[in-house]
Amino acid sequence: MNLLAIDYGEKRTGVAACDENELICYPVCSIFEEEEALLVKKIGKIVLEKNTNMLVVGVAVNMNGSFGEKALKCIEFAKALKNTLKLPVALWDERQTTLLASKYLITSNTKKRKKKNIIDRVAATIILESFIAYKNNNNKIKLV
Questions:
Q1: Per the domain annotation, does 74 fall within a domain?
Q2: Residue 17's CATH number
């Protein structure tokens, strides 16, 4: 299945994809767009290019498991994607993915200026990797 993961942000949104066998996940791009409708449209172009069957949207759940304002924005964005692109959209807990992405980039000696521009797509890749691992071991996936 061709999956696309989204690390939604109000200014920058990271996108990652995988091969059709779901073995290799890779960063696609970071989209610098604040207007939701334009962001959905840009993601729609990527969906067509990658022949995507399903989207995975990271939800910024609080460390205590509650849903704050940011998580609710992620869920609303996921609904907008589903309604516009007519694809199944799964929600995925993205707690600490940006922190983990930052650690990966520090380990790889990525320069600070470059790190800011790629951290969201690396976080999206982590979201997708963890989603696939879960999906392969469980039958229950929460869709929007």
A1: yes
A2: 3.30.420.140
Predicted structure pTM score: 0.87
- Total domains in the chain come to 1
Enclosing domain of residue 68 = 3-137
Cβ contact 81:74 at 8 Å:
no
Structural domain includes residue 143:
no
Q: Classify burial at 22, counting beta carbons within 10 Å of its beta carbon; exposed 0-12, middle 13-18, buried 19 or more.
A: middle
Please give the Cα distance from 28 to 132 (Å, whole number). 17
pLDDT per position as a tens digit, 110-134 = 555 555 667 789 889 999 999 999 9
Identity of residue 73:
K
